[in-house]
Each structure stands twice: as structure tokens, then as C-alpha cells.
Amino acid sequence: PKAVAATSRPAAAPPPAKKAGDAPEASRHMQPANALPGPAANKTRQLYQDSTYLFEHAATLLDIWEEGDKVCIELDQTIFHPQGGGQPSDIGTLTADGLPPLEVVFVQMDKSRQGVIRHECKGDLAAWRAAVSSKKAVLCKVDGEKRREYARLHSAGHLLDVAVHDLGFRWRPGKGYHFPDGPYVEYAMSDEGRQLDNKDAKAKQAVIDELSARMKELVSKAGDCRVEWVDGVRTVTFEDVSCGCGGTHVSHAGEIGEVVIKKLQAKQGNMRVSYSIN
Predict the structure, then answer these.
(1) Which pTM value belongs to this model?
(2) Given CA atoms 235, 116, 13, 139 in this order, what sign does their dihedral have?
(3) How far apart are CA 200 and CA 206, in angstroms?
């Protein structure tokens, strides 16, 4: 998909609410430790949730403040995904007429300003401070290559939940780490379903091979990534496995590409499944 550039965007109607009871009976909802727990009050409009491939968009400058050696910018809306939910922060630039460009080096939800996404920036900020009172129009540009990589990594973690269940395990996802430097999903093991002897190296290798084969099948199938709002929570579904999630994802599993299952590692009653994407 191509990046979408825009200079203005009309306010969109809120997505249709879906009741939990409307889901197919066979669907499985996962609730990892870093999944969205429920509806959240967001002051900054989160445009990245509308489209993973929205790489450029307009916004309005609302505030600038310093916190230690960091200079933070608040916009009325943003296409920058903040770090969280196991996914890295987007990076990119902010530009405005008559002002020097700023480099966006890190984005996160501000801990003291509820619902505000803050953009930590580098550059000549003096002129930007003077532009706050006029609510200057800003053009946000996300690093598209990084955005695509992070979406593939994050989606691969969700698809892994499908593969684990398809192999007969009833492990529950507890934590997802979808960064390029060693992504993994950590599962709480269960007495139900298929069992695995952690000390049996051959058995673990067999499961790695089976997971790799199943992931290859699921990627080749190219099933859609469905995004819905269920009881006010943004929910992402691959196949029949759903999870509350605020991250960016591929349009369909085929965009993930090859997924390599690296290893299985038992940790304090959990099973960490490490993977990579090519």
C-alpha cells in the first residue's frame, strides 16, 4: 500500500460499536498483560489507529514544554504511534510553514497529562515556542519503513497466538515484545490441552518446527486483519483470535512475510516463544 498524504481531514464519525455478544461463538479472545484493558480517555486523536499506512497528515500545534533535557510537543491529533503495548515508538519529522523542521525521536503517552500523546523532538525550538499561541498548522511525517516493520512484527505476534492454539496448546498470552531486537510472546502454560516437557529438547524442537510450518500456512493464507470496536475497546482479530490492541497492524497476514520461530524458553512457569521476520 502507498503512503497517504493529506493536508486536512474531516472529523470522522466514531466507529460503530459492537457488543461482545455479537462475536461468533467460535471466536477466542485473548487478554495479554499489555493488551488494552478497557476504553481510554484520549485527548490526542490517534490517527494511526485509522490506518497503518497513513504516513503523512496535518495537525495543529497545541503546546510545547520542557521536561529535563526533553522538549515535548502536543498536537491535536497525530499519526505517530506512541511506544506501548509491546510496540516501539514511531519516529519522523514535524514541519510547518516558516519554521525549521523538527526531528521526532520518541513518542509516548504523557504520564502527567491524561490522554495526551507527547512527541519528544530535536531541532531549533525557539521559533516553535512562539508559534504555539497561533495554533500553527503542522505536517506530521512518519518514517514509513520503520512503521511497516513494526506493524509486521506486531501482527506476527498476534498470528503466533493463532498458531499456538492450532497446535493444541491452551497457553494464555501474558506479554508481547514486538521490537526488532528479539521479539517474543510469553505464554502462561496450562494443564489443559497439549502438554510439552520443558526438559525434552527434541520435543521442543518438534514444536518449533510445527509452529514454523503453521505460521507459514497462516501467512500464505493471507487472512484479513480485522479491526473493530467492542464495548469501546479497539479489538484486533486474526483468524478467530481477538485481542484488545491499540497498535498498528498489517492489512492481511500475507504482508507479514516469512516468520522464523527462533526458540522456546521456559521461564518461571511461562513459555517464551521467540521469533523473527525476514
Answers:
(1) 0.84
(2) negative
(3) 10
